[in-house]
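Posting for a labmate who doesn't have an account.
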Amino acid sequence: MIQQKRVLVIAGPTGVGESTITKKIIKQYPIFKRLITATTREPRLNEKNRKDYYFFSADRFKDEIKKGNIIEHTFIKNRNVYYGSYKYDLENKLKKGHNIIVNTDIVGAKYYKKNYNAATIFIKPDSLANLKKRQLFRNKNISKDELRKRMNYAKQEINNEAPFYSYTVINKQDELNSAMKKVIKIIKTEGYCLK
């Protein structure tokens, strides 16, 4: 008997819409819950600890890695920030019978593919110009330098990392519902429980 899939990875460059797609899936299929990522970055406006992220100091984050509580992580050098999967949140949600959606990077995608047989979906923008517009719309106060760094990182993710993922879905500008339909079709094809 094939083991039921429980963890799904939905990833992509910042601003591509992976979080919006995740929220819509959870609303449509409440068996899915989002894994709350641990990070060392500062909370943004209206973000709450334990709801949006687990906000840790760098020392606490490193300590949790040593204890085996951060099961995979990435350090983003140009922003001096750690992101990782907090074991407590993952295990707690799995124990309650939920499917988990993880919004992660290539490190996390590889981890979940190997250890949880996760289907991995890369959400790709229809163009870098549209991705840049989304970045500016999301954060009107973003510096030119920060925007340049994010766009360079997005190019690297699209060119070097996207081919690793099981699936690629293009999220065209103003066509989110089309991308959603494709993602839901993948979830059904991969055999995730939707009840």
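Reply:
Got it, the structure tokens are right above this. The chain has seven helices and nine strands.
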